[in-house]
Structures are given as structure tokens and as C-alpha cells.
Amino acid sequence: MGKIEKIFKLTAHGTNVRTEIMAGVTTFLTMAYILVVNPNILSAAGMDATAVLVATSLGSAIATAVMAFAANLPFALSAGMGLNAFMAYTVVIGMGMTWQTALFAVFIEGIIFIILTFLKVREAIFNAIPMKLKIAVSVGIGLFICFIGLQNAGIVVASDSTLVTLVDFGADFRHGGICALLALIGVLITAVLYVCKIKGSILIGIVETWILGIIAQATGLYVPNPEAGFFSAYPQVGITDFSKVSETFGQCFTVDLAKVGMMTFVSVVFAFLFVDIFDSIGTLIGGAEQGGLLDENGKLPNVNQALMADAVGTTTGAMLGTSTITTFVESVAGIAAGGRTGLTALTVAVLFAISSFFAPIFTSVPSFATAPALIVVGFLMFRAAGKLLLSDEHNLAETFPAYICIIAMPLFYSIAEGIALGVISYVVINIACRIARRFQPKMCLVPRCSGMMYGLAILFVLKYIFL
């Protein structure tokens, strides 16, 4: 115990081993779905699903372990959703690149990340974002992961007329209807446990909802239909076939860029780079604000080491055979469960390493059991909105961009887009108000933008024009 205390400084962070481990298990359970989803997505690009699963679990374990020991922060990393779809459907299927070339683009992105992190460029970006926007990022991520939870549970479904709508519980009750109902029950269970201040409430909520699902399946209320995405709620036992790893390991170096075109390759690298930079920064901001990890100046201790973890993870993941490794938004589930140090991250890393051997067991946790955790954590992050709503008139020039940032994340399904639109609107409003004050000196003062904010706004605008 003394060595753990020395490494992770649990007492100084007001936590203990039990809390940190439970927080790590909570985070892992909420993001274990990536072990199923990522192989499914990348297999569409022609990659072997088992090889991708092993690469994902090992890449996640390595990157999260780096986060634990180098940054001592409770964030977990894995293959980023959205980035994997971009690689499979846009780069490989849409643009006709081989998946080996796409992995090489991810590898180059990781190398650039390491350089930018070493030069502290990404840390400067993190620190340049004003505190109001950092709060907005936390709130926006809260709504975003709540929306993801509602989707994972099947409570929110697609609609031709309104884009999204509430599921029809009775239309397909023994499949989608019962799953959505179980998720809603899970939300109430988790909420009651949290309100009653039961330690480990989010993890307990996941387990209890899973047990209800097992009972529902045993009694015939829930009928699995794997082809439609409704899998068995029973725990699955099996061993991973490691012989498949050779099909992706090191394949990122077997490419011929002359057949691709350098400009096309560079544009793909920058697309990966742009989205990953601001997804990871956004997640760190949101999780750190939720866990009270930011200092009085809105800075996160060891942020450069945290950013280096996903840079190393991206590079390692590409060599193993998976898409971009990035900081996972589901980390806030563990932070909400009390995780404050790298011991939470180390727990996740160990579970990912174990899952590479027994992946079927970990991937059998149904989405309707983990979805309530995301919905409840969304609420916990949304509470930070009070810090914006209570702002006085003097801060409207900061509050409105914060509003844009918040609504953009769930509606555009992207943390990066929320940050981009928040930064652009912040700079535009700031400039416009400063010009207006020359004619109306009594107008409210607006905070001065840093040079980095102007640079980011220009970068975002150029991104929308050229990418």
C-alpha cells in the first residue's frame, strides 16, 4: 500500500485504493463496448475482426498505463469512435485507400502528436481556452454522452420526419422495447443510489441492470437477436485467438505512397490530426472540470503528460493494427464514481490487458446496462451549467459562445465541432464588441482574447473551408 500511495499520492487527492479501483472498473464497463464496436467497424475495411480486437485491447492498455504513471490522472484511452468510422468508411471504402495505408496515416498522426506534445503546443491550446468555454465543454460533453447513452439503450431512435424520436416500446417489445425499458429502470436505480450517496453507485447500477436483463432473458421477456444488434445478456466465456494478430501487426509499414498521392495522404493525416487534437483536449477539459482537477487558473496539472499518453497510444495502436487511440469521454463515469488519480487509469489498463485474453466475457455486458451510467454521468456534468447561467451581464460575451459550444456537441455528434464553433463565436463576438465600444464607450467590457485564441479561430475556419 505504501508504494501505491507513493506513486499515485492517493491521500493528497482525497481518495483511497478501493474507490480508485471501483472507479476504474466503472470506466472500463462503460467503454468495454469498444471491444465489440471497433472490430465491427474496421472489419468493413477488410481487417480481421479478432486481430482488431486484440490490437484495440492492447493499444488501450498501453496508452492508459502511460496515462496512469506519467500523468497520474484518471483518464482511460481507446480507439476513438468517429475516427474509426472515418478510417473505414471514408478513407478506405470512400477514397479507395488500403487499410494498411490508412493505418500508416494514423501512425504519422501519432508521430506529429508526439512532436507537438513535446513542444507543448497542445498544452498551450488547452491553457488558452477561456474558463467559461472550459465549463461549456464539460456541459456539452455531458449532453453528448447522455445522448450516446440514450442511443445505446435504444430509447432514442432514428426518425424520417424529426431525425430522432422516442422508441415505440410496444412495437418490438421483446427486443428493443424491453432493452429501452431496462435502461430506464437502470437510470432510476443509479440515480437513487447516487442521491442516497451510496459509494460505487454507478458501478452498482450497471451490475443491477445487467442482472435484471439476465432475469428478463431467462423469463422470456427479452429475446436476443444478434442480427438486429440484440445480444444475449448472459455472460459469455471464451478465449481469444491470438494467431490472428499477425494479420494486422506492423502492416502500417507495408504501403506504397506513390500509388496514393502525397496530397491525398497529407489531407487524410490532417483530418485525423485535427479531430483527435480537439476531441482529446475536450475530453480532458470536461473530465477535469467534473472531477475538480483544474486549478484556480483553469489549468490541469500534468496535462502535457496526459496528451503524450494519447500520442503514444495512437502510434502504438497503429503498429498493432487499430485506428486512432484517444482519451475516452466515458472516463468521466469513473471520475464521477470518485476516481482522482492514475490508479483509476491503471485499473482500466489492467482490465483491457486481461480482456485481450478473455474478450468475450467483457464484451458480454449489454449496452442497456452501461447506458444508464452514461445518462447519469451526463447529468453530473450538466450541473456545471449553473456556473454559466449565474453569469452577470458583464460576461455575456463569454456566455453566448459557451452556449454555442454546448448545443453543438450533441447536435453535431462531435466534441471537436463544439470546441471549434465555440472558439470561432468567442473570437468573432469579442472583436465585434471591441469595435462597437469605440462608438459606444459605455458598453460592457469584454475579456481580451489571447493570440492563441485568434490563431485557433483562423485554423478552424480554414478547416471548414479546406477539409
Describe the structure.
With 467 residues, the chain is mainly α. It contains 20 helices and four strands. The chain has helices at 2-8, 17-31, 34-43, 49-71, 83-94, 99-118, 121-128, 131-152, 173-195, 201-218, 262-290, 303-320, 331-336, 342-355, 359-362, 367-382, 386-389, 396-412, 415-437, 451-466; strands spanning 77-79, 156-159, 163-166, 325-327. The strands form two sheets. A two-stranded antiparallel sheet has the order 1-4. β2 and β3 (163-166) form a beta hairpin. The termini are far apart. The model has no long low-confidence stretch (mean pLDDT 86).
- What does the largest sheet look like? 2 strands, antiparallel
- The whole-angstrom Rg is 22 Å
Please trace the helix and strand order, writing H or E for each element.
HHHHEHHHHEEHHHHEHHHHHHHH
Structural class: mainly alpha
Instruction: Note the beta-strand portion.
Output: under 5%
